[in-house]
Specification:
- This protein has four helices and two strands, in the order ααββαα.
- The chain has 128 residues and is mostly helical.
- The protein is elongated.
Length: 128
């Protein structure tokens, strides 16, 4: 065996850097898509009032790094300012949850989407 030259590892370094970037980008996109999927599910489960404001307030937003997605339903009662999305979800008297059941219903689908994105990134970088 000959001696390894200093530059011989640069191809591997570039490959791993590119692989890491592709995996990260794919997983972040899949996570954001999963957030949108949960939003649609929550909208379909949302208790409807006269205005539909609660349903319209359901949104997803990724953090700056794209590693977390926050889903909110932040509609407030215009008369008293109470956040009635939280009241519908958690108040024992009016309990009509829609956010947690939506998340539970789509959890596996979101996980599967992230896993699929990671596998696709690895396959893309494995080609010669």
């Amino acid at each position: 065996m000959g001696r390894r030259r200093k530059g011989d590892t640069s191809n591997f370094s570039r490959l791993f850097v590119q692989l890491g970037a592709d995996v990260s980008d794919g997983a972040k996109k899949a996570l954001a898509d999963g957030g949108d999927l949960v939003v649609r599910e929550a909208e379909s489960r949302c208790p409807m009032g006269d205005s539909g404001a609660l349903k319209e307030s359901i949104k997803s937003k990724a953090n700056r790094k794209g590693t977390r997605v926050k889903i909110t339903a932040d509609a407030r009662n215009p008369k008293d300012g109470y956040p009635y999305g939280q009241i519908m979800e958690f108040d024992p008297k009016r309990r009509r949850p829609f956010m947690y059941p939506a998340m539970d219903a789509r959890r596996q689908e979101v996980k599967d989407g992230v896993i699929k994105a990671i596998r696709e990134a690895v396959r893309k970088n494995a080609k010669p």
